[in-house]
């Protein structure tokens, strides 16, 4: 693990940067090296406030090896085309010394500009195209022994050559290496990751190793797992593009679902992996998905949310527009052409201005590292479900209701918490018996448990939940239900459970009186049961989180909050506003209120006895309306931040 300054790994730190290919050439920057253009590129990016660049030594340019063959295709010799490999360390690794000198020049330029580099060492996949050395074409890049041999040699030499350069912040395994080839088991992915990270650390144990992967899962059946990447890497990564991520491309980009995507996915990885996690690629993919102005609103709110939830930074994809390039992948993929921070004429777009403004604002704060937000709940993701979809909906609903949570997978140790959420239980093996009994014991000791149902089986169930299932059947019509808490709601749920109350209280019922939402005391705690797959239905439904006519499903989660013995001293009321609470010392807390909507929002805040407003860190201080109650207006896609102080010890 890194022994250098922990810019990337320290909790509460936040770095701002982008992914960089030279403005004139994109992926051909190394074979078409233009020193003055690269210098000017970096100068412009540094001048606008960026701190970090993620850069990519394109694999076939840096290791341009060819395998010559003899009769019947028998492998004979590795060369640079027809040229013998040099009889030195670079030649042994199959590395082109000219390319290494160009990378060193890039690092030197970055150092003079005050920029740090995250190096995606094994860049064999980029923007929808596979890039591999000629000698390795046609092989499974991740499992073939010959390919693995040359990968290790390349990585070992590259890190050895560059490890003393002060501009290098971290080693990234490469850009989305899990896209380079298909593997048949998670053990293969684990072993490849082990080999590459071990090779890096053997040469440079001082810097963090970054995964560079995306599309990970906690599920044991997944090939690329969050837990496996966390075992070998110091930093995990997300690439939260709404357009390509399941459940995220349903609403406008400047509304709560899309804005919270990067934060939710990054916390999903960080909590389950137990490692710092960085959104190292984020972008709108150009003007076809959002205007420049709305893209700026989007990134401003993402920055505020990521910072408030300890997501370590944001790297935009990418530095420059690439619409002038006629080679693949730019010729193939329209989404790769107009997604830069600067135009072809080097005109900064509003997103770049927002990145610079945010860094300037951070540097003016009275703290260097934001203390972690207080969290009141643990969301347990289980087997036989879409873990990401369930996690995402749960994260949005909890933010709308006013509490923060962390994630765990059902196979992981259960942390202590005042509240546990087990949403959308599905299948007969959702959670192991020993973990389920442990969870029930936590409730007996005083915790609150919420369970929602997606046609799953739990045992024991009836006795702790205070109900008795009479029948189970498939539905053919929409489920309507009502409650004194949230009024009348409806969902298209596939399964009906007919419940008899055996000690539980009904919080919501169908028109025929059948309970769908119950609460039951269990030991010193309480269990809430919702017999519909709330989270999975909502995560697949456009408009349900932001539309002014949307049903207030978030009030179901507000009912959960009312049963939590919370650490927080503040409450909010508007579902389009998220709130985090950060202890600065024993008597001072920072309240962050983020407006996740494209219109200004009014908010009513209440504080516990003995707390009063302090100073504003962003925006206008709330105005007192009554004892313990304040009102404020939060600008569209922005935030207000202020301290509160305890007046009574």
From TrEMBL:
Molecular function terms from GO:
hydrolase activity, hydrolyzing O-glycosyl compounds
> Which Pfam family, an example, fits this chain?
Glyco_hydro_2_C
Every copy of the Glycoside hydrolase family 2 catalytic domain together lies at 155-210
Biological process terms from the Gene Ontology for this record are: carbohydrate metabolic process
| Protein name (Swiss-Prot/TrEMBL) | Beta-mannanase
């Amino acid at each position: 693990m890194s022994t250098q300054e922990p810019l990337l790994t320290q909790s509460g730190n936040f770095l701002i940067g982008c992914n960089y290919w030279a403005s004139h050439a994109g992926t051909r920057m190394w074979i078409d090296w233009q020193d003055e253009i690269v210098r000017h590129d970096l100068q412009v990016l540094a001048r606008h406030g960026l701190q970090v660049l993620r850069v990519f030594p394109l694999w076939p340019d840096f290791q341009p090896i060819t395998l010559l063959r003899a009769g019947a295709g028998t492998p004979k010799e590795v060369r640079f085309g027809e040229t013998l490999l040099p009889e030195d360390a670079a030649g042994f690794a199959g590395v082109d010394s000219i390319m290494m000198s160009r990378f060193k020049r890039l690092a030197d330029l970055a150092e003079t500009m005050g920029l740090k580099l995250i190096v995606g060492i094994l860049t064999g996949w980029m923007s929808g195209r596979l890039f591999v050395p000629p000698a390795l074409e046609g092989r499974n890049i991740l499992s073939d022994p010959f390919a693995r041999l040359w990968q290790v040699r390349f990585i070992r030499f590259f890190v050895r050559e560059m490890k003393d350069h002060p501009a290098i912040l971290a080693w990234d395994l490469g850009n989305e290496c899990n896209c380079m080839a298909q593997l048949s088991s998670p053990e293969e992915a684990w072993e490849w990751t082990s080999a590459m990270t071990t090779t890096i650390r053997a040469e440079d144990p001082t810097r963090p190793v970054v995964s560079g992967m995306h599309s990970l899962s906690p599920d044991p059946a997944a090939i690329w797992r969050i837990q496996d990447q966390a075992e070998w890497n110091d930093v995990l990564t997300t690439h939260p593009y709404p357009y390509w991520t399941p459940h995220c491309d349903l609403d406008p980009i400047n509304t709560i679902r899309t804005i919270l995507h990067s934060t939710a996915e990054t916390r999903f990885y960080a909590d389950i992996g137990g490692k710092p996690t960085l959104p190292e690629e984020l972008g709108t993919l150009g003007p076809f998905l959002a205007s420049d102005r709305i893209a700026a609103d989007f990134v401003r709110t993402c920055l505020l949310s990521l910072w408030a939830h300890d997501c370590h930074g944001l790297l935009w994809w990418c530095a420059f527009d690439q619409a002038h390039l006629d080679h693949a992948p730019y010729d193939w993929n329209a989404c790769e052409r107009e997604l830069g921070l600067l135009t072809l004429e080097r005109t900064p777009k509003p997103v770049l201005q927002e990145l610079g403004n945010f860094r300037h604002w951070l540097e003016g704060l009275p703290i260097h590292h934001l203390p972690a937000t207080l969290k009141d709940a643990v969301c347990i993701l289980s087997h036989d479900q879409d873990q990401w979809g369930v996690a995402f909906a749960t994260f949005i609903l909890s933010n709308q209701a006013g509490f923060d949570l962390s994630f765990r997978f059902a196979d992981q140790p259960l942390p202590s918490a005042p509240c546990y959420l087990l949403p959308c239980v599905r299948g007969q093996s959702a959670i192991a018996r020993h973990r389920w009994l442990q969870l029930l014991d936590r409730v007996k000791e005083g915790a609150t448990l919420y369970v929602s149902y997606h046609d799953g089986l739990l045992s024991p169930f009836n006795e702790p939940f205070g109900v008795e299932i009479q029948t189970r059947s498939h539905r053919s019509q929409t489920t309507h239900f009502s409650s004194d808490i949230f009024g009348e709601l409806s969902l298209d749920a596939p399964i009906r459970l007919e419940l008899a109350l055996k000690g539980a209280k009904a919080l919501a019922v169908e028109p025929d009186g059948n309970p769908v939402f119950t609460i039951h005391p269990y030991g010193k705690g309480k269990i809430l049961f919702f017999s519909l797959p709330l989270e999975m239905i909502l995560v697949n439904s456009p408009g349900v989180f932001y539309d002014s006519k949307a049903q207030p499903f978030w009030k179901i989660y507000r009912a959960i909050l009312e049963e939590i013995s919370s650490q927080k001293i503040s409450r909010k009321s508007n579902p389009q506003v998220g709130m985090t609470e950060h202890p600065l010392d024993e008597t001072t807390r920072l309240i962050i209120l983020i407006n996740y909507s494209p219109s200004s929002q009014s908010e009513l805040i209440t504080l516990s006895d003995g707390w009063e407003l302090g100073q504003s860190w962003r925006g206008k201080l709330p105005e007192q309306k009554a004892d313990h109650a304040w009102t404020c207006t939060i600008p569209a896609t922005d935030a207000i931040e202020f301290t509160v102080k305890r007046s009574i010890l």
